[in-house]
Amino acid sequence: MASYGVRQVSSERISLGRGKAELDPMGQKDVLPPPVEQLEPLSAIIQVLNERFGTDLTEKDAVTVGQLMAGLAANEALASSVQVNTPENARLTFEHVVNDMLQSTIDSNFKFYKRISDDDAFARFFTARLFEEYLRSRTDAGGSGAGDT
User: Fold this and answer.
1) Where does residue 67 rank: exposed (0-12), middle (13-18), buried (19+ CB within 10 A)?
2) Rounded to the nearest 5°, which phi and psi values hold at 145?
């Protein structure tokens, strides 16, 4: 899943002479680090679910998983719980937050919601993978994992 945004990085005036010419960039090239690729973990989760459970989850489902992951990453209460609790207790909080967030997928992706709500094994496996990915993303971003103090 790719997302793009527009942001102003400079407000300098550029004066151009008349005629045809090639312009060089005004600053250093490659100032920004390369974007972190979010598609790989999402695609991997979808692929594993499809293989293990014989589902036919699509790119739309990957978008739904991406939205769940983004919501989890932005949830400060969950981040605090993961930081101060044991992994088992953090997992309980995580599952509660995921269940609340899944309720919002009823309108946007009912098929995905139905699959999770109707298949306990699928739901447990999906939640476990999502929890692993959440912890990995916190570690990669410099956050501490469950139970670290």
Assistant:
1) middle
2) -80, 180
Distance between start and end Cα atoms, the chain? 33
The share of the chain scoring above pLDDT 90, in percent, equals: 30
What does the alpha-carbon distance between residue 71 and residue 134 come to, in Å, rounded to a whole number?
11
Residue at 124 is within a domain: yes
The predicted-structure confidence for 95-138, as pLDDT tens digits, reads as follows 999 999 988 888 888 888 898 999 999 999 999 999 999 998 88
Q: What is the pTM of this model?
A: 0.62
Q: Does any domain span residue 10?
A: no
Q: Does 1 map to a domain?
A: no
pLDDT value at residue 145: 52
Task: Give the residue among 55, 142, 35, 146 at the shortest CA–CA distance from 92.
Answer: 146
Q: What is the dihedral of CA 108, 110, 114, 116, to 10 degrees?
A: -20
Structural domain boundaries, residue 123: 39-140
What is the model's pLDDT at position 140? 77
Q: What is the DSSP letter of 23?
A: P
Count the domains in the chain.
1
The verdict on residue 84 lying in a domain is yes
